[in-house]
């Protein structure tokens, strides 16, 4: 069987919108074999003229998650979206079967959503592919009875053939599909090769021919009104896929609002008619752990609509307000707080409150008319901002370089929102190491989280030289360097992230770092020795950045925890742990104890003050002194004899 790696992220959270085989998003290419097209890219392998039966056609699928529907497709790689329109989706299977028209029908009658218009072709061709971390399928295999890929690769036949492609939503076959959060992609119908016309040059004759490498971009549209995406990760002026400390990540948050003729409360929608205009209509709260630092100077908000000629910018202070804090923000109508169910972790919150003036909002809607003057019924509030990846680790456990948003909006006559606030989030792949920090809770077999222990990563040969953001190890006497550091959170989580896991040739490294506790909380003993070791496995070592992201998708890039040992500081395997720390939705694989200065069972490095170690020294010392006095007395006696 073709091995399928289960997506380890609860729900799909959202990874960066890279310019890699991306596409303009569509609900599913529902296309007849002839369509109008724009200019093509060399990757499309468009050839003008008659069908070339000697060429083997290819199909590449790129799967995206999005908050809105896409536009018409052309079959070209140039359909790829602008940054931030959607997030690549990992571990989703698509099935492609060859079809022919049902008896009495023609190819032009085939509708992929109507099984009565087509039937399976005599070839019996039935294939499957699964998306990688970039949301891409470029390898196809025969499908088994459930639609899952087998280990047998297939190619598409030369000559003209027709296919129906469907998304496999079976959670066993497609572990990356979240039916509770996203709609299923619509089935699509196409010919391979794909007949089309290039009429992009004004005044020039149209060029009819075939695309021999078809690119399609099915998407899942969010069922909720809130989505968040990464629109880019920059290291200096360069776009990268794996984030590390110092990189700047650009985010885009979208929230739907409506302008319907029959608005109603309790419909999970915010309608213009429900707006009151006192900054209490729509509230969006952003949560960043210590791994990210918001750039307050780069915040921008606007409203857009599908067919509007241009978005309408919103004014901070007049149309919306921004507030910053470290306490969980309040929801509308004093209806509790945002992120109420999240595990404890030090975080920074940014709250966006809309709208300051209902008349201004109505004017904005009027400016979003289409070319025919029609006003939109569905619009999107768009917020964009930047954040810098820090060297301070992930205090929230959301998944390393991770970020979450929740929203609230008027949904009843009392100004309160839905019972459960819409939520979304992103994880940008980054080198990460996570473990738990524990203390006794009354006995050695009852343990709980310990907050405030500080750790660094060290050079195994020089344990007082620590890993810095330049990728080198430095002693603490060096100035002008920033060390990677992670402090145990209130939940007892210690999580390094944004680590430099690529070498100068942009290939993955093993690392082989050691973990050093540099500061213990007040009243606790600092572990005296480094712990070995942080080592990344074959899915990282020697791999390119692209290959690493293809494997991990929107998940943190973690080491082989079997290689990390806390030795005598490992908690008793029979111990009960209250609320063990989680990282990226899973309980951490390794835990480490801390002991107080009064714990008699602490692993001993130096003798305990006042303990048996010093007593033994005193006893030995007294014996030596007594022996010396005895010998001196004997010598004196001998001289006087």
Automatic annotation (TrEMBL):
One of its GO terms (biological process) is carbohydrate metabolic process. Residues 394-427 are annotated as: Disordered. InterPro entries: FM1-like (IPR048052), Ig-like_fold (IPR013783), TAT_signal (IPR006311). The keyword Transmembrane applies. Keywords: Membrane, Transmembrane, Transmembrane helix. The chain crosses the membrane at residues 613-631. It comes from the Bacteria. This is Putative fimbrial subunit FimA. It comes from Bifidobacterium [indicum] DSM 20214 = LMG 11587. The lineage of its organism: Bacteria, Bacillati, Actinomycetota, Actinomycetes, Bifidobacteriales.
